[in-house]
């Protein structure tokens, strides 16, 4: 009899706690709409600058919205997203099938919205007169080949999207034990390369187009290298033109991943950055918009002469 009573009491407590949690979730959703509320976004550190721009304009347009940007390495951002420590993230790739399956277990269908074409850039010290680099040379170095012409590579973070990108490109699971330097941020990479001859820095191009005020003078001490792809004899730059033509070999896309599971601020922000205003912000930043912003033309039936 006592056992039955305990089981019944346990069931009541479970139902009560579940109802309270469910009610809390509903209350949180009620306080938030697509244009109102507060939201934390985990952002890949290599693209923080463009996200800060988007947030500034979004909050300036919708005064009841507050978005807190938390920049981290790609591995940390993905980990927070999968463990539901953050519901919205901005990364430099789409989710994998395995990552999507993790969301499905929680009955959430994450929405991935591409909003910009980005690129990884190679940089060198100004004292290096050679501003050309073959991608094959970098891959050879990543594969540990002794005949590589690269003296050393400098990355931002062992868990960053740039390291993951280059490892995938070179088809290696680990970076070489010697000749590779890693810091924590893209700014630290730029500073190190500006002070050390012969080093090749690997960074997100967004930090070159939108340097922080304290880095403007440092940027002047480096070269952005033109890159020759694996199957091309021409060298291309991480510019809007070469990205638009599909010529630059280290291009990548930016995605906002929304795992909120309801029509909240994440959906509103995703719509904003993928919309006309957001795409114009991308264009102005030096990156390439995923969709070309529209341009309205006013056609006149007759020519109006200026008054003399």
Could you explain how this protein is built, in words?
- Keywords: Signal.
- Pfam families: PBP_like_2.
- The strands form 2 sheets. Strands 1, 2, 3, 4, 6, 7, 8, 9, 12 and 13 form a 10-stranded mixed beta sheet that branches.
- Strand 1, helix 2 (48-61) and strand 2 (65-72) form a beta-alpha-beta unit.
- The chain has helices at 2-31, 48-61, 74-82, 97-105, 135-142, 161-170, 186-195, 206-209, 216-219, 240-244, 265-274, 276-285, and strands at residues 37-44, 65-72, 88-91, 111-125, 132-134, 152-155, 180-182, 199-204, 222-224, 226-228, 235-236, 251-258, 288-289.
- It is an alpha/beta fold and 308 residues long.
- The chain contains 12 helices and 13 strands.
- The protein folds into 2 domains: 35-117 and 253-289, Periplasmic binding protein-like II (D-Maltodextrin-Binding Protein, domain 2, 3-Layer(aba) Sandwich), CATH 3.40.190.10; 119-251, Periplasmic binding protein-like II (D-Maltodextrin-Binding Protein, domain 2, 3-Layer(aba) Sandwich), CATH 3.40.190.10.
Describe the secondary structure blueprint for this structure:
Blueprint: H1 2-31, E1 37-44, H2 48-61, E2 65-72, H3 74-82, E3 88-91, H4 97-105, E4 111-125, E5 132-134, H5 135-142, E6 152-155, H6 161-170, E7 180-182, H7 186-195, E8 199-204, H8 206-209, H9 216-219, E9 222-224, E10 226-228, E11 235-236, H10 240-244, E12 251-258, H11 265-274, H12 276-285, E13 288-289
Parallel strand pairs: 1-2, 1-3, 5-10, 6-7, 6-8
Antiparallel strand pairs: 3-12, 4-8, 4-9, 4-12, 4-13, 10-11
Record field, number of beta strands: 13
Radius of gyration: 24 Å
| Helicity, as a percent range | 25-40%
Largest sheet properties = 10 strands, mixed
Spell out the CATH superfamily of the largest domain: Periplasmic binding protein-like II
Can you tell me the CATH class of the largest domain? Alpha Beta
Uncertain spans = 1-25
What sequence of helices (H) and strands (E) makes up the elements? HEHEHEHEEHEHEHEHHEEEHEHHE
Summing up helix and strand content along with how strands pair, one would put the structural category as alpha/beta
Q: How many structural domains?
A: 2
According to CATH, what is the topology of the largest domain? D-Maltodextrin-Binding Protein, domain 2
Strand-residue fraction?
A: 15-25%
Number of helices: 12
**Looking at the structure, what is the overall shape?**
globular
Average pLDDT reading: 86
CATH architecture of the largest domain: 3-Layer(aba) Sandwich
Please report the distance between the alpha carbons of the first and last residues. Answer: 104 Å
